Amino acid sequence: MISIIGAGSWGSALYHAIKQKVEGEIVITSRRRRNIEGFVDIEKALESEYIVIAIAAQAIKNFLKKYNLKDKKVLVASKGIDKDELKFLNEIFEEYVSINDLAFLSGPSFAKEVKENKPTALVIASKNMELAKKFKTFFPKFIKIYIDDDVEGIEVAGAYKNVIAIAAGICEGLNLGANAKAALISRGLVEIDRFGEFFGAKKDTFLDVAGAGDLFLTANSTMSRNYRVGINLAKGKVLDDILNELGEVAEGVYTTEAIYKLSQKNNIYTPIATEVYKILYTGKKPVESLRDLLI
Ligand SMILES: NC(=O)C1=CN([C@@H]2O[C@H](COP(=O)(O)OP(=O)(O)OC[C@H]3O[C@@H](n4cnc5c(N)ncnc54)[C@H](OP(=O)(O)O)[C@@H]3O)[C@@H](O)[C@H]2O)C=CC1
Ligand SMILES: O=C(CO)COP(=O)(O)O
Questions:
Q1: What is the pLDDT of residues 245-256, one digit of tens each?
Q2: CB within 8 A of 269, min separation 6: which ones?
Q3: Are 227 and 172 a contacting pair, CB within 8 Å?
Q4: How much is the ipTM here?
Q5: What is the count of structural domains for the chain?
Q6: Which atom of ligand 2 is nearest to the CA of 162?
Q7: Does residue 61's CB lie within 6 angstroms of at least one atom of ligand 1?
Q8: Which of 144, 151, 166, 206 is the most buried (most CB within 10 A)?
Q9: Domain, as residue range, for 112
Q10: pTM of the full structure
Q11: Which residues participate in NAD(+) binding (predicted)?
Q12: What is d(CA 199, CA 197) in angstroms, rounded to the nearest whole number?
């Protein structure tokens, strides 16, 4: 049995994908009961040897405190950095699960397109190559899986691109043009690389699907929730209203705070994340931030 934990957009898309490939029982669970195929309660889900985590990043620490995943093989599909602990998700998981039992899924993948079986490329990173290869077997043909050992790089890439997507959405919402957006996205990639290097990530990771790939996807499409947050901020909407209307998680909002604090603490130059932080948390006007970044 394989269990997906988190029955939101991404968890249900992963259920849809894995169900097509794996013959045994696949189940899905969530905090709130949902009337969907394969839904079971959390206790039943925790009977599986293989667990896929697709819940909001900020909820993961409390989830791990409450439920015992020790001795499970865990694939983490969430993207974010814990804003209170200032820890990457691999660091949080390593406190509860053996490093050899952990793998991380990332890459350009809108849930909607995965649910339509559209071609998608993803990366599974783990310090245990055998485990990464095992998780790779769960995925159907339309999802091409690359195996990697750069867990730190995958974590930074998946989390940081959401922050740059908010900035790119602001650029779009302010109608600053395609030139400006290309500048933001490419300088965003440089910023992600600089931040990642500090935490031991490999440069190559940021040039590949989980880095540039996910950044180009998310920072240039209204299918992205983070990009839409940016568009709405540019229109002058209040953050709480934007998030309520969205009804789904926009991880970049919380990851921005984590990156801002980590870069202050470690003296890392992160100009785009810093401006997004000022817009989200100090009330700086988006138009002033974009002017400070672009001119
Ligand atoms: N959607 C996408 O295209 C992709 C999303 N991701 C990542 O996957 C993760 C989940 O995103 P997604 O499914 O899209 O978001 P949704 O908003 O659709 O779902 C959020 C999920 O997190 C759970 N959750 C939220 N808060 C808590 C909490 N306090 N305690 C326990 N569970 C909680 C929700 O549970 P409940 O349903 O019970 O409320 C739900 O299962 C995010 O990190 C996102 O970045 C990664 C790749 C693609
Ligand atoms: O991570 C994603 C695509 O790879 C989803 O992006 P959003 O959370 O911005 O919708």
A1: 999 999 999 999
A2: 191, 194, 263
A3: yes
A4: 0.99
A5: 2
A6: 9
A7: no
A8: 166
A9: 2-149
A10: 0.98
A11: 6-11, 111, 225
A12: 5
